[in-house]
Design brief:
CATH class: Alpha Beta
Number of strands: 6
Strand order of the largest sheet: 3-2-1-4-6-5
CATH topology: Rossmann fold
CATH architecture: 3-Layer(aba) Sandwich
Order of helices and strands: EHHEHHHEHEHEEH
Largest sheet: 6 strands, mixed
Shape: globular
Number of helices: 8
Helix content: 40-55%
């Protein structure tokens, strides 16, 4: 019997939280061991790099940590070529994540963004907090 793996999009705000000390080891291990499929796009990677480079954030982690995370994301992500146009989110800047969910056939979009969380479900994609997805098994390490 084939087990269908979750296809996850992890929003930039969660990767930034990870750099700041949020323990996502269970999730990153699941990605690393291909238990789940991490979806990404050029737009999502670009947004993450832009946000992580902001001085108010970058002073809290070392450049080496950022490079290692970018390498992890590039290596373990299924890069999706986004072609869909979606215009339903209260914050238009978040519509690209919904388009990625549609084109990547995502099962879950994990975020801390209330504009996205208020949608709850987009097509076949459940929009959840990381805590909901992980069943509350998270902590900060720093």
């Amino acid at each position: 019997m084939l087990v269908k793996r979750n296809r996850l999009i992890i929003d930039t705000n969660l990767w930034i939280s990870y750099l700041l000390g949020l323990d996502l080891n269970n999730l990153t291990d699941s990605i690393r061991h291909r238990v789940v499929i991490l979806l990404s796009s050029k737009e999502l990677l670009f947004e993450f790099i832009q946000v992580a480079a902001r001085p108010k954030l970058s002073r809290y982690f070392q450049e080496r940590e950022l490079v290692e995370l970018i390498d992890f994301l590039k290596y373990f992500s299924e890069l999706i070529q986004v072609t869909s146009q979606v215009v339903i989110c209260r914050d238009p800047k978040d519509n690209f994540l919904l388009a990625l969910a549609l084109d990547g056939k995502a099962s879950h979009l994990l975020t801390g963004d209330h504009d996205l969380l208020s949608i709850h479900r987009f097509g076949q994609t459940s929009i959840l907090t990381i805590r909901e997805y992980m069943g509350g098994k998270m902590k900060y390490e720093r």
